[in-house]
Amino acid sequence: MTVLAGPVPVADPGAAGTSPLPEEFGRTSRPASVGGLGAVGTHLLAGPAPGRGEHLGGHAARWGPLPGLDGTQIRALLRSSGLDGRGGGGFPLIRKVESARLAVGDPLVVVNASESEPASRKDRTLCSDRPHLVLDGAALLARAVGVEEVVVHFHRGAISSIRAMEAALADRLRGSIADPRWRISAGPDRYVSGESSAVASFVGGGEARPHFTTVPLAVRGPSGGPTVVSNVETVAHLAAIARTGSDAWAARGAVTSPGPRLVTVTGMVGDPGQVLELTGVCTVGDILWAAGVATAPGAVLLGGFAGTWVRGDTAWPVPFTRDGLRHVGAQPGCGLVGVLPGDACVLAETARIIGYLAGESAGQCGTCVAGLPTLAAGWEALASGGLSRRGLRRLRQLADTVDGSGACGHPDAVVRLARSALDVFGDDVGDHLAGRPCGGAGRAPTLPVPATHRAAGHDDPGAWR
Amino acid sequence: MTVTIRIDPTRCRGHAICTLFFADGIELDQWGFGQILARDIDAPRDVRRARRAAAACPNRALVVTTSAAVPLPTARGR
Predict the structure, then answer these.
(1) Alpha carbon of A93 to those of A218, A243, A435, B19: distances in Å?
(2) Domain A3-38+251-340, what fold?
(3) CATH says A56-248 is which class?
(4) Residue B19 near chain A (CB below 8 Å)
(5) Which residues of chain A lie closer than 8 angstroms to B73, CB-CB?
(6) Over the stretch A182-236, which tens digit does the pLDDT of each residue have?
(7) Domain boundaries, chain B
(8) Do residue A366 and residue B29 have CB atoms under 8 angstroms apart?
(9) pLDDT tens for residues B18-72?
(10) ipTM
(11) Does B10 sit within 8 Å of A364, measured CB to CB?
(12) Res. A46 pLDDT band, cuts 50 70 90
């Protein structure tokens, strides 16, 4: 059975287990059971309503005390659960932990609470509303790696998240929990500064810019020792796994995408930025339905700004799992689902996102300094109907050059987004090339693309500390 | 011996000196930054050329590693 539980329950929690929805809705919709909070203590977002925060007492009452597992036991749980990273890369946490334990030097454990993806809200939701779950998971991760200290890293602008986390830490000190030493770190607000090697570099005293590495961070990070950087949601899941066991946790997902998963729904929905928790195999349609979208939209952006466009009707029946999304060329990424109505212009939305991402590079590699601005300008022209067929060919060639040529995955992500827009919305591309940009090109943006930081001194070395 | 060559794109400033030493293995992209054609090299002559190219880079952007350069796992109980 599919269960969707959100911080804003879409149905009366009392109706959990029954389906308040019609069995069938249109051609594309699938019957979905939209319940309340599900089994108590098995969902990350179970508990008080959003925005209320949570004290240690309430957290402990719902989840029980932090289990006194040793490192070996925690690693066994990580292994058997198959917990994968939820920041975007989807890398199994156990492999980072084992690399760090085998490597030379003192390991550094960092919980990455940057959440650079501008439309994503899941990590800040956890930090504000379920901080103790995050800290429990971080404490367990520290034990699994064998370190005494954990760094929790934020963007400097995430003031409410930082405050919530500091309040939770004070709470834990009073509760005399066997915790590691905590260090809160706040770095530059830029998009690439949330990338794991940039975070590792900043925490190690360097600039918050991605690092070129020939060995994984978990083997040797910028500080010299192995560095385990793990996303907030990932460690929160670890806290849940330690209570429920890995089987019960994994059963709330698919075989290849074990465990529950947090997603953020944005764009043309009633409550853009709402965070939903998937427990069980949910399709993109189930997610959209829970967000109040009754029929397949024109297009969905899956996985983040560094994600992939898919046609709404193609995406609707696809399970939001690693395997399911692979069939439509997408990945879960940071769990973003961006909804675009049929009359909006995918190319114009893509051009805005590419413009943003191009402006948010670290300005280190040739491909980001020279390639991305050219790519962004080409997309700008395509969106406004001012690009020729030859220009489009050059734009495709440029994408091939840019792909895989940077120190981090930033340029690759831009290329992936661009290609998916061209591949999936070829008809629109033809119209734009013929000088007939669709009506949606001139309308207000649907996806929330912030202003870039480029204007704020791209080359100022101080900007990266 | 097989070596792996990589260009640190954060260091490459397009001096292009590497291509003088190892034209068969490195080409320049459209902006003049170096691009590796084949990452793993085993022909002794090419390995020599790659090492010379790396030594000649004014910005130390070309990295030649052997498998031994990767930190070996050590048994370490924690």
Answers:
(1) 10, 18, 49, 40
(2) Ubiquitin-like (UB roll) (3.10.20)
(3) alpha beta
(4) no
(5) 102-103
(6) 999 999 999 999 999 999 999 999 999 999 988 899 999 998 999 999 999 999 9
(7) 3-68
(8) yes
(9) 999 999 999 999 999 999 998 899 999 999 999 999 999 999 999 999 865 454 4
(10) 0.80
(11) yes
(12) confident
Q: Does B71 contact A145 at a Cβ distance shorter than 8 Å?
A: no
For residue B35, give the nearest of A210, A405, A407 by CB distance.
Answer: A405
* CATH number of this structure's domain B3-68: 3.30.70.20
Q: What is the pTM of this model?
A: 0.88
